[in-house]
Amino acid sequence: MNNSFYIAWRYLQFHWGKTLLLILSISLVIFIPLGLNHLVNKGSEDLMARAEKTPLLVGAPGSETELSLSSLYFNKPKNQPVMFREVEKIKEQQLGKPIPLNIEYQVKEQPIVGTTPDYFEFRDLSLAEGRKMAILGECVLGAEAARKLNAQVGSSIISSPSGAFDVAGSFPLKMNIVGILEETGTSDDEAVFTDIKTSWVISGKAHGHQDLQQVENDSLLLAKDETQAVASPAVLSYTEITPENINSFHFHGDPGDYPVNAIIVEPKDRKSALMLRGRYENEQSSVQMLVPEKVISELVGTMISVRDLLILAGVIIGIACLAILAFVFALSIKLRKAELQTMKHIGASRNFIGSVLGLEIGLVLLSAIIVSGILTLIMGNFGIPLIEKLIS
Amino acid sequence: MKKTSLILAFLICLVACKDKEKENNTTEPVSEETQESPVVYVSNYPLYYFAEEIGGEAIDLRFPASGETDPSGWVAGAETILNMQQADLVIINGATFEKWRNNVTLEEANILNTTQGLDDRLLPLGEKFTHSHGEGGEHTHEGTASITWLDLELAIAQAEKVKNAFQELLPGKREEFQQNFQDLKQSLTDLDSNYDKLEVDPEKFQLIYSHPVYQYLQNAYSLKGESLHWEPGDAWNKDKKHEIEHLAKKGKKTYLIWEDEPAKETKEGLEEMGVHSIVVNPVFGQPENLDFQEVIFKNLQNLQKIKE
């Protein structure tokens, strides 16, 4: 047995190119259905886990999938925002705790999530260093966001314009980093959390500027009396909130009209959840309430159907590949007729020759199984973040 | 050697036990206090006074803006806000008094707005301020008058909300809080009826206010008058003289109501013009040596001089 293993090994070593090609082809045939199955199962579990932890979601009418994915994964919302008064309305009903999310803006590639301190409690997020935000203009970073932005507690980051043509639409606000969260392995790691009011400052709904009643410079004022000051466009809003200018920040209009991209609702109990859903269904207003678990489970259902089809295709391709492989091995034996004859002439028995050939095939198959296992493991570790990135 | 080691071990044990005993003695009262005294923050002095009168020692009362002359313009520090986030209750005046409220992160559930639900009794600031800048276009700052406690009926309503919140926090002290509130209500009602007795005939007297902060006082006790934007420390000058000449009506005795004692020069200048100065402290910040009711009583005494 040792001799036949040695000859088989030496043969494969000598024809390393052919051997490598065979191993790779077989491992891919095994890996495609196996890896796909693993990936979809793991992805579905992760998607469902975050959705299951988000009981109810309120947003503008439109695609339920878009609303769920943007609220769970903080990708740029495509649905219209709802008004902040919806948050007050839910609060007044006393059936659950509303947590507003404003996810319109970014710092480079990282989403800014304007919310309330309740979000940290709701997602069970704890701080790795620093503290929670307390003052307008402060932010807390997810672990991954801190790494990508190369930011530390005590430093600052600047919000980016919301689009290429929005140079003057939103305010590039310098925000102070006061805390960094523990890594959670979820999309919270990627986010820049700030108070919802700070996100309104970025959007320009709230701003701070010089006290126009105190302005002496005539070039900044077009007209002024006791009750009215018409300032020239030269009076610009502050782009950084400091203790010196913080009290000059003010909100225009009714904050109830301010935008909120989504509202997570944490109902008191099952009955409260049903009552809330019933009220929103009956109202048929300009907002919708949905159960993310239901929406994501439909999405996962579609993913599983596609997976099943792909696995079936993979299995059929695999069977065809194995038939081709059998043919390749048979041809190879034919091509090696002279070599096998020589082995017979120098005294090798028929069984010995058979065991050499069998071991050659066995070693190739075993190597291919090991390679496909490694590929599946790699896919399990790095494939999900890749898919989440693709989704967002 | 063995004996020495045993004695040493005994001494270490003794010291350790004493330390532990000491530690227990120091931690016990703290835990008792935290168990029994809910932490309550207030945003201005009148609320501090009401909370202290109603809650007494049962409440761990904190007034972070106590050092400010005008707590409405308090600039909140991050550490204080973090402590406020942990508090059992944050009592605010509302009616746009807390200019800092939009600048901080506080959980709404812990906030008691003492003027919430009293919207129909709130008054406008009486001033619109319109401005435009940048690319944003023109917009108006129209505020609500916030010195609500100068109308003592409103002050009682605010105190009642404080009482209700305390009763929810500590149901075991319900009766005590109710009694304390009744006592406070009684003295404020007495003061209110004395204010009601102020009869300032607008045909005979003209009132001018140094600042537009007396809207509730004017409205509740028929003490109407026009408002200036003068500070008690301002120097007397031509512009001020001109303003008074412009405002003062002939045939009426004119009184200028100040937030604090005006500068001597200003007071004399006004007297020369026949305008008498009266101090009505709006109780923005914590008064020195006096409490809320004493200041309100002193204000009443000063206003009674109008009739003299």
Can you walk me through this structure?
Chain B: This is Metal ABC transporter substrate-binding protein. Chain B: GO terms for molecular function: metal ion binding. Chain B: Belongs to the bacterial solute-binding protein 9 family. Chain B: Residues 174-201 form a coiled coil. Chain B: Keywords: Coiled coil, Signal, Transport. Chain A is an alpha+beta fold and 392 residues long. Chain A folds into two domains: 2-47 and 299-391, no CATH class; 55-291, no CATH class. In chain A, 50% of the residues lie in helices and 17% in strands. Chain A has eleven helices and 17 strands. Chain A has helices spanning 2-14, 16-52, 64-73, 85-93, 118-122, 143-148, 196-203, 270-283, 292-335, 337-345, 350-391; strands spanning 56-59, 82-83, 96-101, 106-107, 110-115, 127-130, 138-141, 156-158, 174-181, 192-195, 206-208, 221-224, 229-231, 249-251, 259-260, 262-267, 288-290. In chain A, strands 4, 5, 6, 7, 8, 9 and 10 form a seven-stranded mixed sheet that branches. Chain A has a four-stranded antiparallel sheet with strand order 3-16-1-17, with helices on both faces. In chain A, a hairpin with a 2-residue loop joins strand 4 (106-107) and strand 5 (110-115). In chain A, helix 2 (16-52) runs parallel beside helix 11 (350-391). In chain A, 32% of the residues are buried. With 308 residues, chain B is of the alpha/beta class. Chain B has two domains: 39-116 and 147-194, 3-Layer(aba) Sandwich (Rossmann fold), CATH 3.40.50.1980; 198-307, 3-Layer(aba) Sandwich (Rossmann fold). Chain B has helices at residues 2-36, 45-55, 78-86, 152-169, 174-196, 215-220, 238-247, 264-272, 292-304; strands spanning 39-42, 60-62, 89-92, 111-113, 124-132, 138-144, 205-209, 225-227, 253-258, 275-279. In chain B, strand 1, helix 2 (45-55) and strand 2 (60-62) form a beta-alpha-beta unit. In chain B, helix 2 packs across helix 4 and helix 5 packs parallel to helix 9 (292-304). The longest helix of chain B has 35 residues, at 2-36. Residues 1-34 and 128-136 of chain B have low confidence and may be disordered. Chains A and B meet through strand 13 and strand 14 of A and helix 3, strand 5 and strand 6 of B.
